[in-house]
Amino acid sequence: MTAPAKKPSEQEGLFWKTKTLEQMSGAEWESLCDGCARCCLEKLEDEDSGRIYFTHVSCRLLDSGLCACKDYAHRSDQVPDCVRLTPENVRTLNWLPPSCAYKLVAEGRDLYWWHPLISGDPNTVHEAGVSVRGRVQGTELDINDEHLEDHIVQWPGLLPKRARLKKRPA
């Protein structure tokens, strides 16, 4: 028995379909970020099971309205445990959300309709309900680590229904 034929991609020929993550220029790599800021949420890991739990608490550098880092260039200096995504680690990090373009590209999958590289509009990530905008309840400065368990939420690990659509809703 042969494997089913791969679905044709409307994104063939675009840089994320023709280059490996390692071959991308710095600008191409950065443009893969959809601006959802889900990776900037505080996460907890169960030491026994390895399961990751997202919270609605963000990094202190996140501007949750803009879904952008307030000091991106110096984020690792200010937040030593900030994880910089690389071609190597996006293939192994178990906490990247299912919508993460780095993860999708590493798996050879297409980007969603709401990704700014597809839509041409950086606001479609918010329109699709993928970003953290309006969902962050505080920063790591506001909420102590010992209280993070009280702030566990499911939505960062899920893909909203409208974000799963094949194209932008009318």
What does this structure look like?
The chain is α+β, with helices and mostly antiparallel strands and 170 residues long. The chain has one domain. It has 7 helices and 6 strands, in the order ααββββααααββα. Strands 1, 2, 5 and 6 form a 4-stranded mixed β-sheet that branches. A hairpin with a 4-residue loop joins strand 3 and strand 4. The model has no long low-confidence stretch (mean pLDDT 94).
DSSP strand content: 5-15%
> What is the CA-CA span between the terminal residues?
41 Å
Number of strands: 6
Helix count, DSSP H or I runs of 4 or more residues = 7
Name the overall outline: globular
Portion of residues within helices: 10-25%
In short:
With 170 residues, the protein is α+β, with helices and mostly antiparallel strands.
What are the SSEs and their pairings?
Blueprint: H1 15-18, H2 26-31, E1 41-45, E2 52-58, E3 62-63, E4 68-69, H3 75-78, H4 101-106, H5 116-119, H6 124-127, E5 138-139, E6 152-153, H7 161-164
Parallel strand pairs: 2-5
Antiparallel strand pairs: 1-2, 2-6, 3-4
Which key features would you list for this structure?
170 residues, alpha+beta, two-stranded antiparallel sheet, 7 helices
